[in-house]
Amino acid sequence: MKTLLILISFLFLTNSDVMHQDTPLQIDKNGNIIGLPKEFSPAKFDLNKKILRINDKEIVFPKCLNYYFEEHKNPKLHLSASWYHSKEIMPYYLNFSISDKSVNYGYTILVDLETLELIYVEKPRTEGNTTYNPEVDLGEKCLTEYKNGIKTLN
Predict the structure, then answer these.
(1) pLDDT means over runs of 10, the chain (154 residues)
(2) What is the pTM of this model?
(3) What is the dihedral of CA 21, 17, 90, 118, to 10 degrees?
């Protein structure tokens, strides 16, 4: 399934007819994610506790994923999302992009906006004019811990 999603993502990047841009989002001082449609409210992310809530779903990121938020010395977190494309092509998603200007790589964590399931983690790196986006192998234990951590709130 992941391979299929990666291939579809590649098609989006190489075919200008279907290419779209993610909508940039902001996080206010209270952790509210600003810029998502009402159907995904409430939307919050607590960077210190690594807790994401979208609507009635919540995930506390497991320790195996916390590393990607904390690895850089001066991390910059950018959030973006897409919910206006066909779900048959790719689920609606929230994109965490973590970077640091002092290094040539960062991390991308892609999460399904409706279920909070993890779509993938990539480690984009730039060499000259080329950017590589290899997927990070999180291991079965981490993936299971993540999946089991998704809660539906009342």
Answers:
(1) 54 49 93 96 96 98 93 91 90 96 93 97 92 94 97 91
(2) 0.84
(3) -40
